[in-house]
Write a structure and sequence with these properties.
globular; five-stranded mixed beta sheet; Nucleotidyltransferase, domain 5; 161 residues; alpha/beta; 6 helices
Length: 161
């Protein structure tokens, strides 16, 4: 039976300067008149990891299981993986030869607690919330980059870190 519940709107973005390099994620959650912004940064990561982490962190903010959620992202990597059902095939194959397995597993765990749909938006365009997420993610990558994306760094053994 379709629900008439108004969905929680989530806007997300991720960035990495150098890709890999210092990076950040950001999300804006909107529910009725309530708005919440979240962001964080890491000293060494990739843009795809930050795009996916933004979604994970936003979904973790939701208090009520089974929430109706609409995620807006400019990441084809994230949107297509879910909407085209690729990630479920990857999971069936135990993520063999897939990057970001740790984050995809974490995503699927939280994703399954809610009713989530994704919509792709053009980045650096006219969507004010996507643009705000971009600003927050870039800022977090510059100012909050003492955090360690240990899964990424352990897998890639980045020299000099």
């Amino acid at each position: 039976m379709p629900t008439t519940e108004t969905p929680i709107l989530i806007y997300t973005d991720g960035s990495a300067s150098g890709n890999p390099g210092p990076g950040g994620y950001a999300a804006i959650l909107k529910s009725g008149s309530h708005t919440k912004e979240i962001s964080g940064g890491f000293r060494m990561t990739t843009n795809n990891r930050m795009e996916l982490l933004a979604v994970i962190k936003a979904l973790k903010c939701l208090k009520k299981p089974g929430s109706q959620v609409l995620v807006f992202s400019d990441s084809k990597y994230v949107v297509d993986a879910v909407e085209k059902k690729w990630v479920f095939d990857w999971e069936q194959k135990n993520f063999k030869n897939k990057k970001n397995e740790d984050l995809w597993r974490e995503f699927l765990n939280i994703y399954r607690k809610h009713n989530v749909r994704f919509e792709w938006v053009k980045g650096h365009s006219t969507n004010e919330f996507n643009n705000r997420c971009d600003q927050l993610a870039v800022l977090a990558g510059k100012n909050d980059c003492s955090n360690i994306d240990s899964e990424y760094e352990n897998l890639n053994q980045t020299p000099g870190l």
